[in-house]
Every structure is written in structure tokens, then in C-alpha cells.
Amino acid sequence: MRNKQDKGRLVYSTAAGRLCPQCQRPQAGCVCGKDRPANLGDGIVRLHRETKGRGGKAVTLVKGLPLAGAELKALAKVLKQKCGVGGALKDAVIEIQGDQRENIKMELEKRGYIVKIAGG
User: Fold this and answer.
1) Are residues 62 and 102 in the same domain?
2) Do 13 and 61 reside in the same domain of the chain?
3) Stretches in the chain below the pLDDT threshold 70
4) What pLDDT does residue 52 have?
């Protein structure tokens, strides 16, 4: 049987708290994950249509994109231009005004993403 110290890397330290699995720095001071998306998911981009909390107006949500930061912001801008509508980027989810699922699906498939239309 192995010693507790021999099992591998340190995961928690009472001095610093949780540690990053890659750089072994405290999670608050970690710099290795800033450019990566928070969640890669299963590799499928899902398009949702939502009206809840928007006064009955439809919004298309694009979830599951494996992008982060400036790349995600640039893609949101391109999608808004292709659809000719406004939108926003909130918490790694692109919101496009109106029911634009078919237009967005065609554009994302051109860019090589696997896209599914999900939800009502």
C-alpha cells in the first residue's frame, strides 16, 4: 500500500486552499486557465429558443461553444451580423434576438461545429 504522500500531486493546502491541477498554484492566483473555456462539455453546440423573462419576445441562446474570451466575443459579433439583429454575450452564452436558430445553425456548421437545435 502506498503512502498518502506518494499518491500524486497536492490538491489542497491549508495555507493556500485549493490548488490548480496544472500549475499547482492556488486557484485564486492561477494563470494557466485564463484563456481556456470554463467548460468544454460534450463538443456539441446547442441552440435554444427562450422567451422566459423577456416579455414574450424570443431569444436564441447559443450554448456549448468551445471558445473563450475574445474568440467568443468575435463569433457573437459575426452571428449578430449574419442574422441582422442585436444580441449579447453573457456567461459564455451568446444571446441573439429573435428565433434565428436555422440561420445560426448554418453558419456554425460552415465553421465546423456540430450543432443541435434543442428546446422549444
Assistant:
1) yes
2) no
3) 1-16, 19, 21-25, 27-29, 31, 33-41, 120
4) 87
Helices 101-110 and 69-83: crossing angle in degrees, nearest 10, is 130
DSSP string, the chain: ---GGGSSS--EETTTEEB-TTT-SBGGG--TTSSS-S--TTSEEEEEEE-TTTTT--EEEEE-----HHHHHHHHHHHHHHHTS-EEEETTEEEEESS-HHHHHHHHHHTT-EEEE---
pLDDT for the residue 1: 46
Q: What is the pTM for the complete model shown?
A: 0.67
Domain housing 24: 8-35
Asked if residue 3 is part of any domain, the answer here is: no
Nine-digit cell at 39?
A: 467548460
Q: Is 2 a member of any domain? A: no
